[in-house]
Write a structure and sequence with these properties.
about 100 residues; two-stranded antiparallel ribbon; globular
């Protein structure tokens, strides 16, 4: 898997990556994104949870082979996204997040 390719796909789509960690958490890898309608758009862009059902061109369709070894995690709601993002301190501390404008 090429991590840069996956990050580039999100950036080309127009999402802002405000937090990113590469580590092996107990259950899932979290990436934090912001954008208009980000949950619905990101989940469509990421692809079906089961990579065998994910459309070609999606992250999971192109890079994943098995549900238990997903290459990216997508929150299922804004509320869960905020929780996973670390508003409650689960994955990121507030000082680890950045704000930027896409050029």
């Amino acid at each position: 898997m090429k991590v840069g390719e996956i990050i580039s796909k999100f950036e080309r789509k127009g999402f802002q990556i405000i937090g990113l960690k590469l580590f092996r958490p107990p259950k899932e890898l979290v990436e934090a994104l912001e954008g208009s309608s980000v949950v619905a758009a990101a989940r469509k862009f990421i692809g079906a949870t089961n990579p065998l059902k994910a459309e070609p061109g999606t992250i999971r369709g192109d890079f994943a082979i098995d549900v238990g070894r997903n290459v990216v995690h997508g929150s299922d709601s804004p509320e869960n996204g905020f929780q996973e993002l670390g508003i409650l301190g689960l994955w990121f501390h507030e000082d680890e997040l950045v704000e930027w404008e896409q050029q």
